[in-house]
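Title: Prediction job returns without error message
Component: structure pipeline
Severity: low
Priority: P3
Assignee: unassigned

Description:
Job completed but the reporter wants confirmation the result is attached to the right record. Sequence as submitted:
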Amino acid sequence: MIFNACQKPSNESEYQADIIVYGGTSAGIIAALQAKKMGKSVLVVSPDRHLGGLSAGGLGFTDTGDKSVIGGLAREFYHRIYLHYQKEESWKWQAKADYGNVGQGTPAIDGDARTMWIFEPHAAEQVFEDFVKEFDIQVFRDEWLERASGVEKQEGRIVSFKTLSGKVFKGEMFIDATYEGDLMAAAGVPYHVGRESNATYGEKWNGVQFGVFQHGHYFRDSISPYVVAGDPSSGLLPEISDGPVAENGTGDTKIQAYNFRMCLSKHPNNRVPFPKPENYDPARYELLARVYAAGWGETFDKYDPIPNLKTDTNNHGPFSTDYIGKNYAYPEASYEERRAIIKEHEDYQKGLMYFLANDPKVPEEVRAQINEYGLAKDEFTDNGHWPHQIYVREARRMLGDYVMTEHDVLGDKVVPRPVGMGSYHLDSHNAQRIVGPNGYVQNEGDIGVKPKEPYRISYGTIIPKKSDCTNLLVPVCVSSSHTAFGSIRMEPVFMILGQSAATAAAMAIDEKRAVQDLPFEVLEQKLKQDGQVLYLEERLN
C-alpha cells in the first residue's frame, strides 16, 4: 500500500508514511528532503532534538576531500551556507573581509561555485531546519527506538517500529540514518563492530597498526607511562590501557576514538570561560604535562578558524581531545550506558580544557593563549554552550550486499553500481593508548592513506543482503571495512548517500520491488538527473 500523504491511523499512537527515516543526522534530513521531492510521504523519527548531527554539532571545518564530487542536495546544503554568509547580519563578531581561511586546499568561501564549506554550528542547523520547514517534513524529535523488540518484520520486510514513548511508525520503506545503526541492528541485519584482521579482506591497513604513524597523533618522545617515571611498580598513569600489544594486522573489537568538536570563540564579548568539571582531577592529564615538558609545541594546530572569530577545535597530537580507548562499548550499549559514556567523554574533555587554561604544568605561553578562547556564548545555548552531538566516528557497520574495502577506496578495483563518490583519505583515529615493547607510552590505530583520486561508492554498500531485509537502506553505517569507513565517514558523503538512499526507496515503491532488485540503470539515471556525481568524468567545477 502506498501512502500518498503522511497519515495517522485510528490508533492515536500510530503514524504511517511511504518512507520512514530514523535519525535526524545530515543524512537523515537530506534523505527526507529527497523523498519529498520525489512525491513520497515521509516521516523523520529522530532521537535527537537538534537536526543535522555533526554538521550542526561543531564539525564546521568540513572534511571535503575533493569537493568536485560533492553534488546533488549535499551541494545545495553548502550553497545555502554560502547564501547565509552573504548577508551582512551573519557577520556579528568579525568583518566578512577579515575571514579568508583556506584549509585542505578548499577555500572557505567558494564564490565561483557559490558554495561555502566552513561554517558555524548554528548556521548549519538553521539550514536543516529551513529544509524541514520549506518541504513540510514532519519530524518527531526525542523519539528513541525500542531496540529490544520494537521492530516488526514480516517475510523479510520491516512493517513498523515502535519508540520508547509507545509511538508506532509504519511504512513501505525504511532508512536508518543514525550514526549507531540501531534500526539496522534491531531489524536483524548483520553488522560488524571493530577492526577486521587484514586477512579478512586482504587489506594492508586494517587491524592493529602499532608503530604506524601517519598523522601527528603519537608520542614522538620517550614518555614514561608510570606514575613514578621509569618505575613500573608505581602503576600506570591515567588514560593508558593495560595489556599486551597484539601483532599488527590482527582484528579486534576496538574502534577509533570519539570526541566533541568544540566551537570556541576568541571574541571577548562572545566567550564563556572553560568550566571546571565537578570531578576534575589534574592528575588525569599528567601525560600531557610530560609531553609539554619534553618540548611539544603544537597545541593550537587544529583550532581551525570558522566565521566570527570562532573555531572548530579537533584532536591533535599525542594527548588531546580524543578520549582514546573509552568508547568500545558504545555501539552495542543501552541508551543509559551510552549516556554515561558520553558524560565521561564530556568530563574528560572539559577537564582537559580547564587543565590547559589553568595548570602550572602547562607552559605559561600556552595558558595565556588558551585563555584568549572560551566556549562560544551564542552556540549550543540550551546545552551550556557544549556540543549536543558527540563525534561518533565509527560504530556498527552493516554487512550488506557489497562490502567496500580499502581496495575500492584506493582504486585497486572497479566499484560496481555507484550511487555517489568519496575522496577523503583513509582516516582512522587512534584506537588505544598502551605501553609499547620499549616500555614507553604510545598510541595505536591512527591511519591516514590518501586515495590517488576520488572513488565510487557502491549501491550495495547502503543496502542489506536480500535475505536479511528487502526494504531498508543504511546511508551512514554502511557496509564497509574499518579502513574503508575511515574515508567514507565524512558528512558530505553521508548527505550524498542519504539522497541516494531516498531515491532508491522511492523508486522501489514505484517499481514494487525489493531494494536489491531495483534496476541500477534506472536508479543511475535518476541520480544523475538530480545532480549526483557518480563517475570521475562528471566532476563539478
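Comment from assignee: result matches the submitted record. The longest strand covers residues 14-22.
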